[in-house]
Design brief:
Layout: E1 4-9, E2 13-18, H1 19-23, E3 26-29, E4 35-39, E5 42-52, E6 57-62, E7 65-72, H2 74-81, E8 94-96, E9 101-106, E10 113-114, E11 119-125, E12 128-133, E13 138-143, E14 150-151, E15 156-160
Antiparallel strand pairs: 1-2, 1-7, 3-4, 4-5, 5-6, 6-7, 8-15, 9-11, 9-14, 10-13, 11-12, 13-15
């Protein structure tokens, strides 16, 4: 059974895409991170203008036009059919240590505004350096560790200000 992806463009045009459809695209990544797409013998320049991976929403520029694109996976459909909304409650208040380890470096300070996926600190565990990234946009309210501290699993490292 082939997986269908539900795609909505500009909030009004909806269609299904399969992996076979995506694989059939004649698209090439260019040196600057944009893409070159051939469609019906027509050359198109494509670039990602804005991405929200949590909501699976993208602003895609094709030649000179920008399109708002939402992509729903089969898992999103299953979650929705169960009455849930994917990513709806992503309001993390604290960052806890995922494992015991040593704080090698704290990369942020109290009051600093961070974006989702910004690096917050580096935790060494089992001789590996693990960069702990921000799970959301927010402002750092407190930092309860310093460089050189050892922490146990689930120890609160950073707290975000409430929105």
């Amino acid at each position: 059974m082939e997986k269908n992806y539900k795609v909505k463009v500009n909030g009004e045009f909806e269609f299904d895409l399969t992996k076979k459809d995506v694989d059939a695209l004649d698209i090439l990544k260019t040196a600057n991170g944009d893409y070159h797409l051939l469609d019906n013998h027509s050359s198109n320049q494509v670039s990602m203008q804005k991405t929200d991976f949590v909501q699976r929403a993208y602003h895609v520029k094709i030649n000179h036009a920008i399109f708002e694109v939402e992509i729903r996976t089969p898992l999103d459909g299953l979650i929705s059919s169960m009455g849930y909304v994917f990513g709806a409650n992503k309001k993390v208040a604290n960052i806890d240590a995922p494992m015991p380890g040593l704080i090698l470096e704290v990369l942020v300070k109290v009051g600093q505004e961070v974006k989702e996926n910004d690096p917050l600190l580096i935790l060494e565990a089992m001789k590996m350096e693990n960069v702990i990234n921000s799970p959301r946009d927010g402002v750092i309210q407190s930092i309860s560790v310093n460089q050189g501290d050892t922490v146990e699993k689930n120890h609160t490292l950073i707290t975000f200000e409430e929105e």
